[in-house]
Amino acid sequence: MLDAALQGLWLAVQWPAIGYLALGILIGMYFGAVPGLSGLSGMAILLPFTFGMDPVSAFAFLLGMYAVTTTSDSITAILIGVPGTAAAQATVVDGYPMAKKGEASRAFGAAFTCSAIGGVIGGIVMGFSIPIVQPIVLAFAKPEFFMLAVLGLTMVGALSGGSILKGLAVATIGLLIANVGYAQQVAIPRYWLGIPYLLDGLPLVPVVLGIFALPELVSLAAGKRSISDIPRESVAGGLMRGMRDAIDHWWLLLRSSFIGIYIGILPALGSTIADWVAYGHAVQSAKDKSQFGKGDVRGVIAPEAANNSVKGGELVPTVAFGIPGSAPMAILLGAFLIQGLTPGPEMLTLKLDLTFSMMWSLIFANIVAAVLLMMWANQLQKIIFIRGELVVPAIAMFVLMGAWSGNAQLGDWIVLIVFGAIGVLMKQSGWPRAPIVLGFILGDIMENSLHLSLRAYGWAWLWERWIVVVLMILIVVTVYFAIRQQVRDRRKATASASDAGGSVPVLSIAMSVLVLVASVYSIVGALGWPDAVRRFPILVGVPAVLLALAVLFRDIQAIRAQAVAGTVRGPAWLGDADFRAELRRSVYFFGWLGFALVLSVLVGQLIAIPVFIALFLVLWGRTSWLFAVIYALLCAVFLWIVFDQVVSTNWYRSILLG
Amino acid sequence: MRRSVLALFGAVAVSAIAIAAPASAQFYKGKTLTLLINYPPGGPTDIEGRIIARHIANHIPGAPTVIVKNMGGASGNLGANFLGESAAKDGLTLGFFTWNPMDQVLGSEGLRVKYNDFVFIAGVQQPSVVYGRKDIKPGITRGADIVKASGFRVGGLGPTSTQMLYAALSLDLLGVKYSAVAGYKGLKEVETAVLQNEVQVSNSSLPGFRASIDPTMIKTGVAIGYWHFDIEDAAGNFAPSPVVPDVPSFLQVYKELKGKDAMPSGPQWEALRLVAKIMNSMFRTSFLPPGSPAEAVKDTRAAFVAMWKDEAFLSEYERTVRYRAGLVTGDDGQTLIADLGKIKPELVAFIRDYTDKIGK
Asked: SS3 for B156?
């Protein structure tokens, strides 16, 4: 085997393979860094270019690109709170607060180091585990998938916020919104409100950007400050500090890398989930959890290691069995077809050297990208000290285009704005946002695995399959420890009503009511459907109702406690004056987004977005017209080059200009 | 009189040539033809579509620029709806689809257009193969052995997918007892389930059979091909497909079990015939929007015919799908598709009932 590994190295460094690898790395860094583009879109766009290449070059090109998107995607996740790709969602949770504390460089140092190390570990494990991994892949059938998803969701739901009840309630809502659109079993549309757009289900990227990115954008626009709350002069700790953080937490780094690999090996999960599970693990295993969500570097280390190592894992079933480890891997299977290669036993015998060349491509790409990004980090991080209103238009452009580039439908923007509003509400009222997104991602997988498990095994899979039983025990243990932790925390801080979370219980009540209405609606709507279609919504809806009622009860208690203490009265129900001013400005900002949408309908996005940017800068940011026009023109050129020439976006066909 | 008739004839002929020939030669000159693919990039539909996109311009007079746009979603229905409802009828948007005609037959809400309203340009044949594990008790060494087995599970995509119907109907016709597990997300997922012994029998299109089932399951001794469906010609005669010599045809298996003159009949058979006829002969389909210019229809139909004689294209296509795929063009395909609009209500009712049972 070592022989083949060396032959693989020799293949990987040959010209032109090494040249294509370098090109792939540069393209991948770019696709990772621009929100809305991702390894998936990169894979799809680059695939046709491999028609004429030899196999080693083709895979070096594709894997070089794919390996590094999850290194560069932390740039925007940390700097502006917008995940560069879906795999950086968990990085936002602590990475962005680090930037707010002025520690963007430190976060970069940790993120790039962990990405590189995680990616290299993933590559090595991939190369040497392919021949022995068959039992793991074959042991994870549908029942195991279902239970694994429940475990992942429980971890993130119970651990990602101050309140277990809120975390789990939000997780169930995530599962329920995944049910919108055609049911998988029988072509019955669910919860589509008579809107044909919803028949296809809610789109992932606009939902994620709405929940995570828009609220940050809103507070940046509404808050009259730069991303960093601290002036540049008083920032301590830079890139080196972050690298040292990574080394200090080497054990977490290693565990997270293996979590990533393992999730990658399981078919169809992939990096969108690996980062969350690693994040959940980091929180769960930490002694002092108080800083998570407020800029704990461990919250960057874990997901960043996992979302790079996952790719080595994904390659394992892809190469060994032709079973794609994730959506981009399904496209990579297309490259096998184009090359006339057959994934499976052949890749482990006759073509073992080619398989190892893939390992080397992964390793080189991860190291090169991290080194390059380290060199640029100090330039990049300057953005966090710029006045908020000046960066908002550019970020808004990324968010809008990110939401658009998946399906290219107007509904994508409406979904973005609606979930943005929900995201703002959740953020302001102390509800954790991570579980809703993970629930949304896992909803389909869970419903599908549950249905197929029941079809294939009846209920017996719950006790007859030992992996399922082990996973169930882990779920119970997770919940037990989370509750114990919370009870201890509460004893420490008896005075504050920690379950109310945010400072404004009235907003939290609004959210509880929303959750309650949604879950009741989902149950009532499901009653008339056939069993296979209504089972999952009801199974999730019932606990959702109970959790929502429990949170509501606690919120009301919190308000009564405040009322008794006499701390709130009159308009102060909605927080203090500053808070209310920010809330008002948030509402105005949504008005601006609505304006961008209407203008796009009228004259098309290539005109509307720059016009929106210029007007916003002048009217909101109080800049000069000259500055605003130059800024908008630069954005227009960027839009045209990146989204029209490079990826040929399907632009909206406007009413006035066609 | 004769002279004038001749003159008139000549004038008509000349003007016909003057209008038709140069107009046709000019139609796509300097224009951009968009190939609209109804699945996302990277899947089999996309890969095959892109090979066609790379070659088709060489066979269209005026050599247009050809670009590819993907519009995936709703099992391919989003792209079909777009072609029928929103795409300009200027001959510049050509659909290349993996279609699900059952959505039309069963009146699914997701499909808002009718395939028989489109202008049919070409269809690519792709036989499908039922395969399964060898270790189903009491042991399967060839397809016909399955009638001795019972209590095994058949995996497939959604209950209304032609893929699921195909496997279920053929097993029912043989009188085999099995349970259906419908709802896997893709053929790859079903293959994994067969490998995991979660389900034991399924079916796949020939490219999938050759490219992944053969190396991971057949060569390793886990599974064998049970049968493929016979090709039905225009006169209603059946014959084994020449591109799957290694797997018997369904009727061969049927006759072996039920006697050499036996022939299946009844609604299950009619439903199976319908599925097989549509999907075997036209697994991938190419359409122009209803009401597209006649020159565009003529040029694109001719382009597919010429492309299917072009060795450079064929060898590239064959390398991807792993067999020499046949082509259905022009009027033949239009006739087949027109039948979609004329299916007897009893048969539709039967299929709806049948798929409901699978989905329960």
From this structure: strand
Same domain, A552 and A595: no
Same domain, A474 and A529: yes
SS3 of A209-271? HHHHHHHHHHHHHHCCCECCCCCHHHCCCCHHHHHHHHHHCHHHHHHHHHHHHHHHHCCCCCH
Range of the domain at B98: 2-125+282-342
CA distance A115 to A84: 14
Q: What is the pLDDT of residues A65-83, one digit of tens each?
A: 999 999 999 998 998 888 8
Cα gap A524→B149, rounded to integer Å: 43
* Interval A299-327: pLDDT, tens: 999 999 999 999 999 998 888 877 777 77
How many CB pairs below 8 Å do chains A and B form together? Answer: 134
Q: What share of chain A is helix, strand, coil (3-state, %, to 5)?
A: 80, 0, 20
Is residue B328 a part of any domain in this protein? yes
Q: Which of B50, B71, B183 sits opposite A48 (nearest CB)?
A: B50
Cα separation, A273 vs A624, in Å, equals 44
ipTM: 0.76
Tokens of B223: 């599974």
Task: Calculate how close chain A gets to B336, using CA atoms only, in Å.
Answer: 25
Task: Assess if residue B100 is contained within a domain.
Answer: yes
Which residue in B has a C-alpha nearest to residue A448's C-alpha?
A: B183
From A534's Cα to the closest Cα of chain B, the distance in A is: 11
Structure tokens at B114: 């009718």
Q: Strand B284-288 and strand B201-205: pairing?
A: unpaired
Nearest CA distance, A441 vs chain B (angstrom): 15
Indicate whether A524 and A600 sit together in one domain: no
**DSSP secondary structure letters along A73-132:** HHHHHHHHS--SSGGGHHHHHHHHHHHHTT-HHHHHHHHHHHHHHHHHHHHHHHHHHGGG
Best B39, B82, B188, B220 residue to mutate vs chain A (most A CBs within 10 Å): B188
User: What's the whole-model pTM score?
Assistant: 0.79
Phi, psi dihedrals of residue B155, rounded to the nearest 5°: -100, 150
Domain that holds residue A350: 2-225+242-562
Cross-chain residue pair A448–B185, CB shorter than 8 Å: yes
Chain B residue numbers touching A321 (CB-CB < 8 A): 192, 195, 216
